[in-house]
Amino acid sequence: RVKRGWVWNQFFVVEEYTGTEPLYVGKIHSDSDEGDGSIKYTISGEGAGTIFLIDEITGDIHATERLDREQKTFYTLRAQARDRQTDQLLEPESEFIIKVQDINDSEPRFLEGPYIGSVAELSPIGTSVMQVMASDADDPTYGSSARVVYSVLEGEQHFTVDSKTGVIRTAVADLDRETQDRYEVVIRATDMAGQLGGLSGSTTVTIVVTDVNDNPPRFPQKMYQFSIVETAPVGTAIGRVKAEDSDVGENTDMTYQMKDEEGVEMFKVTTDGNTQEAVITVQKPLDYESKKVHTVVVEALNKFVDPRFVDLGTFRDQTIVRVSVLDVDEPPEFRPPSNLMEVQEDAHIGSVVGVVTALDPDTANHPVRYAIDRSTDAERIFDIDANTGAIMTGKVLDRETAGWHNITVLAMEADNHSQVSRASLRIRILDVNDNPPELATPYEAAVCEDAKPGQLIQTISVVDRDEPQSGHHFYFALAPEATNNHHFSLLDIKDNTAAVHTQRMGFNRQEQDVYLLPILVVDSGPPALSSTGTLTIRICGCDSSGAIQSCNSTAYVVSATLSPGALIALLVCVLILVVLVLLILTLKRHHKSHLTSEDDEDMRDNVIKYNDEGGGEQDTEAYDMSALRSLYDFSEIKGGDGGGGPGEGSLSGNPASELRALPQWVQSPDLDFTVFRDYICKKVEQADKDLSVPPYDSFQTYAFEGSDSPVPSLSSINTWSSGSEQDFSYLGAWGPRFRQLAALY
Q: Can you list the alpha helix ranges (DSSP code H) found in 257-327?
């Protein structure tokens, strides 16, 4: 039995076919095909029926479209052979591939451009700059379509490129950034290994030449000139100079320095970090009269020097700077600058303390006048001669009051007082022995009654306001008035102190409890001065251990006489007290009379004042009875047992009849008091609402009692009749003064 199967050739199709007829690809054939047309061939898969068509009878396959291998390299299809009558598969379905055959239709492309590289200037030949790479879409496995080689189209005089790797290298060793700092190099890539007919592509590579420190600083001028006034203070900027450097970045950083000795002494140069300029400043005061022109040398040098280029020369440069000092009108200068003088404190007024000298430093040498700044010598203790500068005493000096004086002396040009200079002068007052020594304190000592001879009572020290250069040395002795003293002795210890001792056995404080011991103190001079101080010694009672128990503080002998000055002062004080007392009494009386006159002038109140008690009920002459009567008419009730009528003029009878004849405070039914009530209420309302002033208190008298009072009258005068039920027996207990009143009731 013969095995049946598919029979066809290897299928290839050339890309980019440009013919007008379909391109024959190949033929599929089954070994069962006898050529009678009974077999039907069909294909399926990628591009079947569109790109690829098959002849059903012969099995020929044609490509109807233009293919591009760079887009798709092969197509996978499946072939079938069927019985045309029954449509049954005669062969199993088989898969086959149609490959697209490459042609050189794609040029190399630089996909990573644009390219930018850099190389340092003065780099040696062959220094690698960067690498470029081109890509070709053709089939690298078929022919040489994808084999690329590189070459330089532009810039070949400075750079080269490796034909296989694309590495760009320097072709020369003298690349100079200062001449040209960038290059545009065109690199070409060609396929087909560079053979004729190959396709090519190109790209532009920008190569930047970086800087190295191969240029030293250079001053554009060999000399600079500046000018400055001689009074310019230290630190004043004179001018700026700058050295130029063709390099860039940190390679241009430089420092400046003075090269000559004069420049280092008089001037200072610093570098401005922002502008790289040399700033020249004054380091020492200038003087036109001493030197008018200063010539200095300034040197500039790079901070960072590349050792590879040391052989190119020194990386520094120098220039000359000439500074002219300008003359100005300057104030006088004190010479010499000594500021200390000394004078004895006993110097007479007008004595010369010292002389100050000032000169005009200008060429004109104007005369100088002197003065003292009185704000530093307000008391005018010193004077100065305006022409000679001699300082003299203006007042008596006292070292103990002020041992030093600080004054300011002014020196000015005679014809231009605005040009003035000042000098501080310290004057020391030298000590003269003009103060006697004195006891350090008012010494008081206590001694027991049973003290023994030679017992130490007190150690004496003194003070002296003077300060001799050789130090203090004092001498002690009892005063001449104490030469007959047999109770105490004084011992000079020779160290500016003295000791007081008892000289006898025991004391009796009943006889004398206080002793006053005068002590004479003398200093060493010259001249020697002395003073007398008193030591108060009290005699005290002591216990067995020597501890003081009690002392009598009253001196045995005390001079009670007062000086005439003290008596006069005492009398003046007494007189002042008397005058003050009289003045106070006068003011009080005046104030009292003023108040009385004000009270008398206030006529608003009908108040009668009496300051005496009177003579009793029988005395009717002491006051006016009509003042007690009402301004209105009231009913009067005559005596009787409850009966009576109105009447007047019967008050002169016996006391009982007088009582019955007094007017009774009974409101008449015909009187209308609404006017008074309204007036009073209105005044009360005004007083309550007026908040601007304090209330004014006044006493007003109204001639009516009012109506419907809840409290009955307390006056016995208001009884309707003498037959009242009230009991007035308690009046008898009021004493003899009210006996007459008790009888009436």
A: 261-266
